Structure formats: C-alpha cells, structure tokens
C-alpha cells in the first residue's frame, strides 16, 4: 500500500515538474542517422534525406526532425575550444546544413555526449557544455541527443552531467529539444522529467525481432511515467532496414505508436520501398502516437498459453487505442479483447475500427474478437464506446 502511494506521489510530482522548454508535447517524430548509417554519415546524405522527407510525404505525415547522430564532430579548436565538424563528411559546416534542412520546412538535430568522448570516440561535451550549447544555438540547431559514454573520467553523477547541458541549452534562449540517452541504466523514467524531453529506457535496438521486443517490454515497465513534454524512448525505429519481415515491422510501428515512443525513422529514406513507406506513413496509426492526451498505452493482458497480448491506452476523444498482438510463431491466431479490460462494462456496445486498414469493422457487445492474426502480426484498433 505504502509503495503504491509512493509511486502515485512520484507520478504526480513527475508530471508537474516538466522540463520547461515548451517542446515535446507529443513524442518527437523525425529521422536519425545511426541505425542505418552508423559513422558513415555526411552532409550529402543529410541533404538528400531532407529532400526525401518532402518527396515521399513523410514530412506531411508529421515527421519533422532530421537528426545527425555520432561522428559529425572531429575535434576541438585548441584555442577557442569550439567544436569542429568533420571536414571530410561536413565540409560546408553545420550552420549551412541546418539552413538547408530549415529551408525544407524541417528541423535539425545533433548529437553529443555527457562524457569526455562520444561513444564513437569523438569529442564529448563534458566541461564544454556552454560553449557547445552556444554554438548549437548559433547554428540554429533544434534538437540535441545527449549520450553517456566515457563519463567515468568526469567523476560526476549522471544527474549533474545531464543538468549541466540542460542548463546550458536553456541559457541559449533557443528552444532545443533535449533527448537523453543513458540507456535506462539509472531508471531515468522515474526522475528525468525535470531534465529532458525524452529519455532512453533501454540499450541500443538492433534490427531483429527479439531486440525490438526486448526494448518495448522494458519500456512498458515505465509506462506510468510518460506524459506530455517527457516521454519514454525505447530507441529508434528499425522499420525498412531489412532485418525483420513486413509483418514484424508493422508490429514494431504499432507498438511504438501505442506506447507513445518517439517515431524516429532509422532507415535510408532515399530509397524506400512502397511497403516501408506505407508502414511509416499510416495516418491513423501516427494519430495514436501523436494524440494530445500523451498517455502511454500498456500491455494489459497476456495469454501465456497462446503467446498473445493485448495492449491498450486512452485517447483524447475518450476512445481507446488497442493492439491485438500475436507474439507467437503459431500462425493465424484468434485474439479476443474483453471490454471490461478497457474499463467498460461487459454489456457495453463498442464501435471498432481497424487503423492500418482505415476500415470500420462494426459494433460489438461485450468483446471484440480478431481472427486470423498472423504470427508476429497485430491488429491495431480504435474502440469507441457507444452505450455503456
Ligand atoms: C550509443 C547510443 C546510440 C548511438 C551510438 C553512437 O550507443 O545509444 O543510439 O547514438 O551511441 O555512437
């Protein structure tokens, strides 16, 4: 009982004291270079990515940030301490790249680290927070992903190191989305709301079914701590990178959307298949992620015998987003959603819509049964109460 009260107090405390930069009312949407390109990144790719955002309609679908991850920086000027972009990959410099991205109506993000080096061994920001934040603002950077490698030599706590950059960003006067990436090690979901706009809850995702599931399962443990201006981040999307089937990628997108996870595309958007594009661009699935209530959907029922799950979460208009998920290798399973699990009566009449198909499935009383859900597949639904 005491534990429940303590958690309730923490949650309410948590939602009052959000990072006050006005950003991240809904989970961030955009693209990040790391999952597909790693260190092999340059300004030509970034410019072409911004172009592709427009040409493919991703921008129109709501994807906005174009974020350069690790390896854009090469060294620090010995006299001024200014960070120097890699002259081979980014010869035109970051200000001109940011201008280009802005000229496309998009926002521009960079990456740094709260230690002495980034994870790939480039200069970190520890001890240079103000000088780095000032130059980001000068370049018109809109987003900073802040990693946690090589922190040992600083001998400082995570709290101190992440707050130092938060304060430095605030001092610039430019609103810069602050994405904390310390891999969930110090349970940031519980206490990072006053520090960052989002926080990683897990280690790095890889382009495999098991990795994707592991990350969303861990992320789910912290569901109650997500709210507007501070969201849990189970890492970037792998949709389109080739390591999972289309069914699995659709499930990946469904889980990230219902869990209010950042939708940061991690594939090469210059060459998207039609299938990948349709997964990334589905307006009704994205609408669940971007719903202004900002409450993270959670796993609400598991059937261990069949290895199926129901995930659900409330939406602003009073309806529920629901996922009927066949996690098993078993093909074509039947999954029932019981309306009392959603907080409604067993006699309730409910309208059900398939969000992937943009199709009303009818009205149901007491429960809704999804048939033939393929292995690793999920039906993503919107359920609206008609009569209680
Ligand atoms: C860490 C982060 C990744 C990526 C790499 C870059 O592993 O968790 O998301 O930013 O560093 O080196």
From TrEMBL:
Q: Which UniProt keywords apply?
A: Disulfide bond, Glycosidase, Hydrolase, Signal
Q: Which domain of life is it from?
A: Eukaryota
Q: Which GO terms describe its molecular function?
A: alpha-galactosidase activity
The signal peptide stretch is 1-18
Xref: InterPro entries = Aldolase_TIM, GH, Glyco_hydro_27, Glyco_hydro_27/36_CS, Glyco_hydro_b, Melibiase_C
Provide a GO biological process annotation: carbohydrate metabolic process
Q: Native species of this protein? A: Rotaria magnacalcarata
Q: How does it assemble?
A: Homodimer.
- Family of the protein in this entry: Belongs to the glycosyl hydrolase 27 family.
Name residues in a coiled coil: none
Q: Enumerate the PROSITE patterns for this protein.
A: ALPHA_GALACTOSIDASE
Q: Where is the Alpha galactosidase C-terminal domain?
A: 306-382
What transmembrane ranges does the database entry give?
Answer: none
Reaction equation(s) it catalyzes: Hydrolysis of terminal, non-reducing alpha-D-galactose residues in alpha-D-galactosides, including galactose oligosaccharides, galactomannans and galactolipids
For this protein, the Enzyme Commission number is 3.2.1.-
This chain's protein is named: Alpha-galactosidase
């Amino acid at each position: 009982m005491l534990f429940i009260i303590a958690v309730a107090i923490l949650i309410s405390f948590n939602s009052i004291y959000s990072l006050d930069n006005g950003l991240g009312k809904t989970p961030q949407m955009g693209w990040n270079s790391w999952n597909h390109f790693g260190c092999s990144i340059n300004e030509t790719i970034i410019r072409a990515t911004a172009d592709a955002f427009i040409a493919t309609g991703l921008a129109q679908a709501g994807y906005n940030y174009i974020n350069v991850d690790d390896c854009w920086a090469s060294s620090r000027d010995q006299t001024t301490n200014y960070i120097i972009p890699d002259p081979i990959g980014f010869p035109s410099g970051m200000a001109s790249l940011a201008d280009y991205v802005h000229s496309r109506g998009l926002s521009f993000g960079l990456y740094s680290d709260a230690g002495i080096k980034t994870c790939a061994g480039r200069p970190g920001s520890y001890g240079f927070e103000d000088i780095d934040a000032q130059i980001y603002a000068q370049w018109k950077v809109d987003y900073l992903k802040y990693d946690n490698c090589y922190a040992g030599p600083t001998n400082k706590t995570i709290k101190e190191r992440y707050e130092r950059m938060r304060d430095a960003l605030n001092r610039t006067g430019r609103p810069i989305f602050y994405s904390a990436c310390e891999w969930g090690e110090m349970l940031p979901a519980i206490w990072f709301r006053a520090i960052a706009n989002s926080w990683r809850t897990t280690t790095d995702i890889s382009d495999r079914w098991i990795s994707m599931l592991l990350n969303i399962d861990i992320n789910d443990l912290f569901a109650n701590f997500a709210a507007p201006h501070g969201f849990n981040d189970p890492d970037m999307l792998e949709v389109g990178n080739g390591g999972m089937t289309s069914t699995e990628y659709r499930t990946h997108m469904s889980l990230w959307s219902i869990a209010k996870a950042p939708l940061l595309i991690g594939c090469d958007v210059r060459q998207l298949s039609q299938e990948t594009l349709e997964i990334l661009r589905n307006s009704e699935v994205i609408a669940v992620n971007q719903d202004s209530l900002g409450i993270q959907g959670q796993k609400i029922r598991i059937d261990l015998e069949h290895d199926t799950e129901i995930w659900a979460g409330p939406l602003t208009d009073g309806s529920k987003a629901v996922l009927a998920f066949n996690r098993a290798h078993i093909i074509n399973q039947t999954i029932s959603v019981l309306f009392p699990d959603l907080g409604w009566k067993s006699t309730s009449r409910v309208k059900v819509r398939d969000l992937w198909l943009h199709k009303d499935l009818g009205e149901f009383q007491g429960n809704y049964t999804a048939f033939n859900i393929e292995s690793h597949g999920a039906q993503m639904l919107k359920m609206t109460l008609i009569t209680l």
